Amino acid sequence: MSLPKRIVRETERLISDPVPGITAVPHSDNMRYFNVTIEGPESSPYENGKFKLELFLPDEYPMVAPKVRFLTKIYHPNIDRLGRICLDVLKNNWSPALQIRTILLSVQALLSSPNPDDPLANEVAEEWKNDNVHAIATAREWTHQYAN
């Protein structure tokens, strides 16, 4: 089965013009499935971490958003223990004008600025709001423990 030209172009661009701190490599046996690594942004609790994610392009892509999930355990108010991500561009703010790289940049940006007011992990969000210092320390600890 051949891939739509758009997916081929986006994949080629990800490889020839990689996003700083992000790698996305398609599986050799399924070019719609990507192994992704995102480096934790500087000055965030995730700094120096390397987070593994999976990204899958459904048959309806680009009319529907890619499916993206963290495989590395992470302490973040917008990412649950199954690795699912609460991010507007993956849900109601998806647009076919967006691309794989813009989605991955949005995920990386979410690591820089967690949003405990729109949580997926409620307990983490509560801690982020009520004891920010401890929440950030836990995020750093988990990054050190799971994302190295």
Q: How does this model look, in words?
A:
The chain has 148 residues and is of the alpha+beta class. It is built from four helices and four strands. Strands 1-2-3-4 form a four-stranded antiparallel sheet. Helix 3 (122-130) packs across helix 4. The longest helix has 15 residues, at 132-146. The chain starts with a helix and ends with a helix.
Fraction of residues in H or I helices: 25-40%
Query: What is the helix/strand order?
Result: HEEEEHHH
CATH homology superfamily: Ubiquitin Conjugating Enzyme
Question: What is the tally of helical segments?
Answer: 4
Strand content: 15-25%
CATH class: Alpha Beta
Sheet bearing the most strands, described?
A: 4 strands, antiparallel
Short key terms for the protein model shown above:
148 residues; Ubiquitin Conjugating Enzyme; 4-stranded antiparallel beta sheet; 4 helices; 33% helix
